[in-house]
Design brief:
The complex is a heterodimer of chains A (114) and B (114).
Chain A: E1 4-7, E2 10-13, E3 19-25, E4 31-38, E5 42-51, E6 54-57, E7 65-66, E8 76-78, E9 87-94, E10 103-105, E11 109-113
Parallel strand pairs in A: 2-11
Antiparallel strand pairs in A: 1-3, 3-8, 4-5, 4-9, 5-6, 7-8, 9-10, 9-11
Chain B: E1 4-5, E2 10-14, E3 19-25, E4 32-38, E5 45-51, E6 56-58, E7 62-67, E8 72-77, E9 86-93, E10 102-104, E11 108-113
Parallel strand pairs in B: 2-11
Antiparallel strand pairs in B: 1-3, 3-8, 4-5, 4-9, 6-7, 7-8, 9-10, 9-11
The chains are: A mainly beta (114), B mainly beta (114).
């Protein structure tokens, strides 16, 4: 089944403890992206990747890191999480040629930083 | 940067009515526009897109209209059904040096009453 998977789905952590949220797609998509969703603010793009080894900042990249060493994986790294990073996170991917194709979203990861 | 807003945060309609959801954007260089639907507890789902060289595009029961003069985008849903109840987001691609970067609006909650 074609899909985007994220792990973990739920995570409660403490301030300053490094964490990684994994994202994987099995559709051979070139474009991948991370978003955070907060009430009243919609979705905001954190980072995106046009292809392997190519990443760019979205609108809210501060406090996050990403890497794209393989086409299928695009992990989101929080080196020192803070409470303002408590949010619902979505990973998405789309077909080769970049973002100008339908983006498929993962199920989301709900992160709480205390 | 790009800012994307919506005219109404909520929209309530009767089953069978037509629904219109609006979106305004700020960057006249924006070249690609997408509508997403998000049901409760799920990731966003692609509905329809339109490129800046078009004014209108139709899908199954949905139509997207683009007015570049006033930087306005709308999603029309014909014969709205209870299953259309969800949050609807527009997303805008600015193009240029921000190739690949998407900015989302805050979302409109559509409620369809049987």
């Amino acid at each position: 089944e074609a899909q985007v998977t994220q792990n973990p789905r739920y995570l409660i952590t403490v301030t300053g403890k490094k964490l990684t949220v994994t994202c994987s797609q099995n559709m051979n998509h070139e474009y991948m992206s991370w978003y955070r969703q907060d009430p009243g603010l919609g979705l905001r793009q954190i980072y995106y990747s046009m292809n392997v080894e190519v990443t760019d900042k979205g609108d809210v990249p501060e406090g996050y890191k990403v890497s794209r060493k393989e086409k299928r994986n695009f992990p989101l790294i929080l080196e020192s999480p803070s409470p303002n990073q408590t949010s619902l996170y979505f990973c998405a991917s789309s077909l080769s040629g970049g973002f100008r194709y339908e983006q498929y979203f993962g199920p989301g990861t709900r992160l709480t930083v205390t | 940067g790009e800012s994307v807003g919506l005219h109404l945060p909520t929209l309530s309609v009767q089953e069978g009515d037509n629904s219109i959801i609006n979106c305004a954007y700020s960057n006249s260089a924006s070249d690609y526009f997408i509508w997403y639907k998000q049901e409760s507890g799920k990731g966003p789902q692609f509905i329809i897109d339109i490129r800046s060289n078009m004014d209108k595009r139709q899908g199954q029961r949905v139509t997207v209209l683009l007015n570049k003069t006033v930087k306005h985008l709308s999603l029309q849903i014909a014969a709205t059904q209870p299953g259309d109840s969800a949050v609807y987001f527009c997303a805008v691609h600015a193009g240029g040096t921000s190739y690949g970067k998407l900015t989302f609006g805050q979302g409109t909650i559509l409620t369809v009453h049987p």
